[in-house]
Amino acid sequence: MQRVLPIVLILLLLPIHASILSKVAEGNKLLPKGEGTSYVLPSPILKIMSLEFDGIASDYTFLKALVFFGSTFERKERPRVKEWEWRWFYNILNASTHLDPYFLDPYYVAQAHLTWEGNMVRETNALLEKGSRYRDWDWVLPFYLGFNSFYFLLEDAKASEYLMEASKRPDASPILASLATRLAYKGKKTENAVIFLQEILSGTDDENTKKMYETRLNALKAILFLERAATAYQERFKRPPEKLEDMTAKNVIREIPKDPYGGKFYIDKDGSIKTTSELR
Amino acid sequence: MTVLWPIAVITFKEGIRNRAIYGISIFALLLLGANLLISSMIMQEVGKVAVDMALSTISFTGLLLVLFVGINLMAKDLDKKTIYMVLSRPISRPQYIIGKFLGIVLLILTTISILSIFAVISIFMVKLSYPGYFPRFSWPLILLSISFITISLILLSALTFLFASFSSTSFITLVLTIISYIIGQSIMDVKALVEAPQAAGIKVSPVTVKVVQAAYYVFPNLSIFDIKTQAAHGLPITLSYIFWAVSYGVVYTALAIIVASVIFRRREFP
Amino acid sequence: MIKIEGISKEFKEGIGSKRVMALKDLTLDIHKGEVFGFLGPNGAGKSTAIKILINLISPDAGRASIMGKDVMDKDTRRHVGYLPENPYFYDYLTAEELLWFGGRASGLSNKVIKERTDDLLNKVNLQVARKRQLRTYSKGMVQRAGIALALVHDPDVVILDEPMSGLDPIGRKMVGDIMMELKAQSKTIFFSSHILTDIERFCDRVGIIVSGKLRLVDRLDSLLSGAAALENIFLKEVEKAGGGVEI
After folding, report:
1. Domains (ranges, CATH) in chain C?
2. What is the pTM of this model?
């Protein structure tokens, strides 16, 4: 009896343990996660606290950011990521790059997500500036900076500067210099953006990020297609189309392409092609 | 010299056969194994993360070794009176300290060498699995970083001798060593912070600045030996920096051991 | 051979700065080839006196020398073998390694150490256990290993602090035989004990110490010729000193 009792107890307690654990884990997920606070410890303090382990602390904070971001894809609500969460995401990437300013991945993730979805282009550029300063051998970061300045901030001169800087760095893609000059042509925004994105895509091997950029590229190609169609329409009928359906009705195009983000393309008041999804 | 060697040998044997060392080694192997796992989560700089993991593991394991095996070797001599078997020989107190220290240096060198082999294997395996993600990678820098880690561990254990020479229990030595380690790793950053507080938007009193500046000279600047970031990114280290860092380590270690010997000379073992 | 001149030692007990006089003006002279028994109740100051001889503690007043050299000089210990009370050695060393250390530290060559080790481990009956780590030893085995360590460099002066404690009857006989052998080699032996029969069996001379003060030093045969047993003399001295100490 005395020998059997502990075994029975253990066998009894094991499933109880497992079920309690799943309950607690569930509850733990629902714990308020500092709702509305994007506060991350100031980077100098983090740096001091991580002692000699700032490299690995940088890896850790970055992975934390990544795990959080990945978890948002399970969410049903829209917008998927809340405003303060974007701020937190930015702060933690910033902390990670403060701990190890040479670490490429945080910059890479910031560029991939903070700009398009997070609407934090200025902040991303500040981050990339830091990275570009430290990783002075790396052409990718000034290239990102150039893209952001051009596409989001509409600062073509600044963008050209960044691209020229990028083109001077070792192993830079030969397309950069010509791209820098192309930016001078107004009205080629979408086309240039497509070239940019193709260039970014060619340097991306991570499957998920690649997919993200491909979707983006497809959307931009669709917009470019519609823009070109609108120009053709203008030439043929001497007036711009009022809505996209005009172009299918007049057989300028066979059909309106689908927005890969699930939105609908439309013609804005100023005549530019937009989508209801805002590419997010 | 003839009496230093036997002390070093028995200290080393006592240390290397300690069970704690098995625990520490298993821990280190687990961390290095985790290297393969974590590296697979990184998209771009796999090499950097792999090197980070390997070097941090060596550093942390070495720290555990100094704190729990090194201090214990010295403390047990005093607590359990095993020091009698040494001091009843024609051995002076400074010789005892130096011999014992050599033994612990030997222990650190051996452990770090073994760990380094495993660390190199783990980096090598990651490199084999993701060959495209090691753009700026340098074995010499990694080895240099490991050597620097070793120097800082030796320096730290010299400090444990200093503390053990006057403290009555090993616990006090342990606490003092941990405090010195934390101060030593952060004092450079703290000094920079309090001397230019406006950069971080904080206010610092002049007294604090003086205290920090004093601590800067008293405590070992262990962050000097932390070139893990440079090793991880393959950033060059100048020869003159290596020279000055090694010199700093040697001088500080010598100072700590000499002061420990002086204090120890007056100590009684009732 | 061993000269102790007017040694006093005071210990502070804890933080309360309560002072305890461990030795009061101790003077002793031990001649070459003599077996001197240092007798006293627990806490009388026997170990303190011995530790001063090994320079583990330093006296507040007075001086001590062995073979004409001050005990502060480390070289005195080249010719001194010391067995601490309740000896404790490195857990993870073997008896062989322990003796290797003792020999090397005293300047012996490996060859001599090997011969001495074989001989001594035979004598203390640890030949079988010589490659086992000391942490696996029983208390008596550690004590015997300690005796071997004290004798490994063939010292002229042997100082043993309670050599019989923790030994079973066979062990006691073993140590007794070793002491007789040392005596036959006309080594100087200074040993402390609170066990009267040991003192009676081996000693040429006896010193009785109570509460840090030397009460009596005399040749054993002249002490015993007074027809009183050593036990009675000892108890009388303890009583005179006003210490109600149990034996």
Report:
1. 2-240 (3.40.50.300)
2. 0.80
